[in-house]
Amino acid sequence: MTAKTTAIATARLVEVFSAIQGEGFNVGTRQIFIRFALCDLRCHFCDSANTWNTPDTCRIERSPGSRDFEVHSNPITLFMLLEWIKRQNIPNLHDSISLTGGEPLLHASFLVEFLPLVRSATRLPIYLETGGHRTEQLAMVLPYLDSVGMDFKLESVSGEKRFPEHASFLKLCNDSQVEVFVKIIVSDQTDVAELQQAAQLVADTNPLIPIFLQPVTPLASPVHTDKYITAPSPDQVLVWQGIMKRIVKQVRVIPQTHKMLNQL
Ligand code: SF4
Questions:
Q1: Ligand 1, closest atom to CA 51?
Q2: In degrees rounded to 5, what are phi and psi of residue 142?
Q3: Which residue's alpha carbon is nearest to atom 6 within ligand 1?
Q4: Does the global pTM surpass 0.85?
Q5: How many domains does the chain have?
């Protein structure tokens, strides 16, 4: 009789590195970032379009914050990633591990096996950054998460519209033990009616869930290369925050601070 072999879980990565979180609730904290390849959305303002397809190789920082990357072929195995994270996790440096991308939930089967091991090896909280549209995959990994930053896509800014998916995704987070916040990227083209609808959807779930308005860092769109995405004016942001605060309790405005620091 032949012995049954169990396949080792693999994933496709872009990079692993240690940095200061520049967005949302965890801004300013030190994290180990695991950036997964692949995304099924095509946001007009995407600053990680290099994740949309699987690169042949990924880059892995040897020591935290030193940018001394080594290169490995994709896909990588669960045990390789576990060793790289343990190597990054020097005592007292990091506050948490950030799962980012791309869309990390496209790797849900891998995460279900990887997250319990990395939690027990590092004792670090696990934070998920996500497009907020894959509820089924969220349900698979939710038991291993501590916090979730859910992007809320406005069609007027991103070209994507996922309101029903955002509603079920946010409800699942709210009904669980995780800490959740919503991030909305705004540009000078933001439709205020869409912003109000987004705030109302959050309020209908739980009006205490914080919303972070993130003025876009201006860039040439990777989707429409003839289009330049421009940040909103200070006056626009002041008005929008006021309107949304009539609907939900917390609306904070934070641009991408890691870009101000000229950080990765
Ligand atoms: S969800 Fe994130 S990675 Fe995917 S296209 Fe939008 S901004 Fe880019």
A1: 3
A2: -50, -40
A3: 43
A4: yes
A5: 1
